[in-house]
From TrEMBL, chain A:
SUPFAM superfamilies membership: alpha/beta-Hydrolases
Boundaries of every AB hydrolase-1 domain copy: 23-145
UniProt keyword terms in alphabetical order: Hydrolase, Membrane, Transmembrane, Transmembrane helix
Protein name (database record): Pimeloyl-ACP methyl ester carboxylesterase
Cited InterPro entries: AB_hydrolase_1, AB_hydrolase_fold, AB_hydrolase_sf
Membrane-spanning parts: 84-107
Provenance organism: Mucilaginibacter lappiensis
UniProtKB/TrEMBL annotation, chain B:
Protein's name according to its UniProt entry: Acyl carrier protein
Lineage: superkingdom: Bacteria
Taxon lineage: Bacteria, Pseudomonadati, Bacteroidota, Sphingobacteriia, Sphingobacteriales
Matching InterPro entries: ACP-like_sf (IPR036736)
C-alpha cells in the first residue's frame, strides 16, 4: 500500500499512469477519502494524465493528526506532498471541502497550479455546513450517513457505523477541526478570490444546496465557467463518468 | 509484501482462500471470526467493506497478480448497483478467467 512520509507524517496516496506528461491531483472532501475518485473518475482521467490521489490527514488511511485543519495548513500539506512527489505544477481538482483547499492552493501557490476544477465547494460561512460539527451525536451520524456521505450510498452495518463513529468522535472532539473551520468562515468573501486568474471549472449539482455558492464563485472568478450537473451535493457518486469526462475535456483543451 | 506472481494457474478454491486472507488483512481478524465468509458473501452488505477498504483489497490483488489482472479497471466498469451486489464468487470467477 503506497504510504509515503510527508513532513514526517504518513500519507496514503494512489497514483495512476505515472508516465504521462501532465499530472492531475485530486483532493477529496471532509469525512471522506480518496476512494471517491479511485474507482470511476481517476481511471478515466488516467487515460491521458498521471493521476495522484491522497487521503487528507486523519482521513482514509493517512495518519491521524490533532491540529492543522485550516486552509493554510491543508495547502501547506499539499505543497509538501507535491514536493515529495517532485511535481512542479499540476492540474488540481477538489471536491467539497477539497474544493476549498484547491482554491486556496491556487491563491497561495499560483505557480504550482495550471487549471482548477472545483466540485461542490461549500461556503464555510454557511451555518448548516458548520452546524454539522456543533450538532454531532450518534443520531446525527446515522442521519448524516443516510443523507450526506460522499463515499458510498450503501447503508452501514454495525462494524462500519462503529468505524465511522470513531473517526467522527476523533475529528470532532480531539482535533482542532471545529475551531479551524470556524476560523475559515469568511474565506470566500476575501477579496483575493476575485484576483484568481486560473482557468476554473465549477461543477455543482443542479439540485445541490451549494449551487448558490457555485454561482457566487462564478461571478467572483473572471476566468471561471459554471456547469450544473444532474444531482445534488453527491455528484461525484451520482454522475462519476459525466464528471470525469467534463474534467478530462477541460484539462485537455 | 505479497508479490508472489504465481506462474501456475490457481483453482477456484485456492483463489477463495487467498481472497479470504486479503479480506482478513483488510478488516481485521476479530471481525472475520464473527463472519461466515462464503463465495456468496457480498462485499458491502455481508462483509461490510467500505470503499477505502475495497481500495486496500484492490491493492492487495494488484500486488499479488501484477499486470495479469486489471481488478480496478474491472470494478470501474460497474455502476453503483453492481458494486453493491458484488460478491466474492464473482471476483473469484473474474480472477480465475484472467489467469
Amino acid at each position: 500500500m503506497p504510504v509515503i512520509k510527508v513532513n514526517n507524517r504518513d500519507v496514503h496516496i494512489q497514483e495512476l499512469n505515472k508516465g504521462a506528461a501532465e499530472t492531475v491531483l485530486m483532493i477529496h472532501g471532509m469525512f471522506s477519502n480518496l476512494s471517491v475518485y479511485y474507482f470511476n473518475i481517476a481511471p478515466i482521467l488516467a487515460e491521458h494524465f498521471h493521476v495522484v490521489m491522497y487521503d487528507l490527514k486523519s482521513h482514509g488511511m493517512s495518519e491521524r493528526t490533532l491540529h492543522g485543519y485550516d486552509l493554510n495548513s491543508m495547502t501547506d500539506d499539499l505543497n509538501a506532498l507535491m514536493e515529495a512527489l517532485y511535481l512542479n505544477s499540476v492540474h488540481l481538482a477538489g471536491y467539497s471541502f477539497g474544493g476549498l483547499i484547491a482554491l486556496k492552493m491556487a491563491l497561495r501557490f499560483p505557480d504550482k497550479v495550471k487549471k482548477l476544477v472545483v466540485i461542490e465547494a461549500p461556503d464555510p460561512k454557511d451555518e448548516k455546513a458548520r452546524g454539522i460539527i456543533d450538532d454531532y451525536s450518534r443520531e446525527f451520524l446515522e442521519h448524516y450517513v443516510e443523507n450526506f456521505t460522499d463515499t458510498t450510498k450503501v447503508k452501514m452495518g454495525k462494524r462500519q457505523m462503529e468505524r465511522n463513529h470513531r473517526m467522527y468522535e476523533y475529528l470532532f472532539y480531539q482535533t482542532s477541526i471545529k475551531s479551524d473551520m470556524i476560523a475559515e468562515k469568511d474565506f470566500l468573501d476575501e477579496p483575493q478570490i476575485t484576483l484568481l486568474n486560473k482557468e476554473t471549472l465549477l461543477l455543482y449539482g443542479a439540485d445541490s444546496n451549494c449551487l448558490e455558492t457555485g454561482k457566487e464563485l462564478n461571478e467572483k472568478i473572471k476566468t471561471s465557467e459554471l456547469t450544473p450537473v444532474p444531482g445534488d451535493h453527491n455528484i461525484p457518486i451520482q454522475e462519476p463518468v459525466l464528471i470525469a469526462n467534463m474534467i478530462n475535456t477541460f484539462f485537455m483543451n | 509484501m505479497d508479490t508472489v506472481a504465481s506462474t501456475t494457474k490457481m483453482n477456484r478454491d485456492e483463489i477463495f482462500d487467498l481472497m479470504k486472507q486479503f479480506i482478513t488483512e483488510v478488516i481485521g481478524e476479530e471481525f472475520v471470526e464473527e463472519m461466515d465468509i462464503t463465495p456468496e458473501s457480498s462485499f458491502t452488505k455481508d462483509l461490510e467493506m467500505d470503499s477505502i477498504e475495497i481500495v486496500s483489497f484492490s491493492e492487495k490483488i494488484k500486488a499479488h497478480f501484477g499486470d495479469q489482472i486489471d481488478f480496478t479497471g474491472w470494478l470501474s466498469s460497474m455502476d453503483l448497483d453492481q458494486l453493491i451486489n458484488l460478491n466474492l464468487g464473482m471476483i473469484i470467477n473474474y480472477i480465475y478467467e484472467c489467469q
